[in-house]
Automatic annotation (TrEMBL):
Residues 1-138 form the TIR domain. PANTHER family: ADP-RIBOSYL CYCLASE_CYCLIC ADP-RIBOSE HYDROLASE-RELATED, LEUCINE-RICH REPEAT-CONTAINING PROTEIN. SMART domains: TIR (SM00255). This is Disease resistance protein RPS6. One of its GO terms (biological process) is signal transduction. Keywords: NAD. It holds the Pfam family TIR. It comes from the Eukaryota. Gene3D superfamilies: Toll/interleukin-1 receptor homology (TIR) domain. InterPro entries: Disease_R_plants (IPR044974), TIR_dom (IPR000157), Toll_tir_struct_dom_sf (IPR035897). The keyword Cytoplasm does not apply.
């Protein structure tokens, strides 16, 4: 709806590495929404996805939006509280390098201002606002579909101003 297509990773079979289809979907996205919950850090799959999302943010300027769903942004940033306990448990079976990269990614994503469920008395209103924000961001950026078309930017900008 709203001309927004969503990639949902729930249909992908879980394995030790992120599926190529998911990597491709992350790279092709103009916006990624990271929904952080208390159990988010229990999934090395989610943590690896996060690394890919933040890499796209840094390398190609992908917009990253955050939703803190029942978790304090400070606990995500510092890996403390219940979130931190879950993260430490996930890291027990991993290398120090993986733990360090994930920890930095969580600090980075925790620093991105986003929606915090506790600030809303109505979850559906929060979702409506997020959809509006996504739509506004998509309308404000030029699609990568036009990347290789020489001279089209000026025409797109003129159309957008109309």
């Amino acid at each position: 709806c709203n001309g927004i297509s969503m990639f949902d990773d729930q249909g992908i079979e879980r394995s030790h590495t992120i599926a190529p289809a998911l990597k491709q979907a992350i790279v092709e996205s103009r916006i990624s929404i990271v929904v952080l919950s208390k159990s988010y850090a229990s999934s090395s799959w989610c943590l690896d996805e996060l690394l890919g999302i933040l890499k796209c943010k840094e390398e190609i300027g992908q917009i990253v939006m955050t939703v803190f769903y029942g978790v304090d942004p400070s606990d995500v940033r510092k890996q403390t509280g219940e979130f931190g306990k879950v993260f430490k448990e996930t890291c027990r079976r991993k290398t120090e390098e993986e733990r360090r990269r994930w920890s930095q990614a969580l600090t980075d994503v925790g620093n991105i201002a986003g929606e915090h469920l506790l600030n809303w008395d109505n979850e559906s209103k929060m979702i409506e606002k997020i959809a509006r924000d996504v739509s506004n961001n998509l309308n404000a950026t030029i699609s990568k579909d036009f990347e290789d078309m020489v001279g089209i930017e000026a025409h797109l900008e003129k159309m957008q101003s109309l």
